[in-house]
Design a protein that fits this description.
Order of helices and strands: EEEEEEEEEEE
Strand content: over 45%
Oligomer: single chain
Radius of gyration: 13 Å
Largest sheet: 7 strands, mixed
Distance between the termini: 34 Å
Number of helices: 0
Helix content: under 10%
Structural class: mainly beta
Number of strands: 11
Shape: globular
């Protein structure tokens, strides 16, 4: 299973790092997808971190968000910088058919 954490309240322009912890499987062997769902909107994919190390980002977050992995901790990370109010959403990680439970990010002054 997966567990996402690290969300919270942050001011515009601030940063947060989300964590996606895997248990029961080795995260390094699989792609990690990051998604978010804003209030009243559909869930959207924002990043993919492939098992070969390649990364993709949605245009809405490109240049501001960065994915990484810590294989020793069996975790993936989503570093979010220069946050905007439009980034407010519940953020999810996905891997090997599993969804994390979601973590709320609120960007507000």
């Amino acid at each position: 299973q997966l567990q996402a954490s690290g969300g919270g309240l942050v001011q515009p322009g601030g940063s947060l790092r989300l964590s996606c912890a895997a248990s029961g499987f080795t995260l390094d062997y699989y792609n990690i997808g990051w998604f978010r769902q804003a209030p009243g909107k559909e869930r959207e994919g924002i990043s993919c971190h492939s098992r070969d190390g390649s990364t993709e980002y949605a245009d809405s977050v490109k240049g501001r968000f960065t994915v990484s992995r810590d294989n020793a901790k069996n975790r993936g990370y989503l570093q979010m910088d220069t946050l905007k109010p439009d980034d407010t959403a519940v953020y999810y990680c996905w891997s090997r058919g599993h969804w994390g439970q979601g973590t709320l990010v609120t960007v507000s002054s």
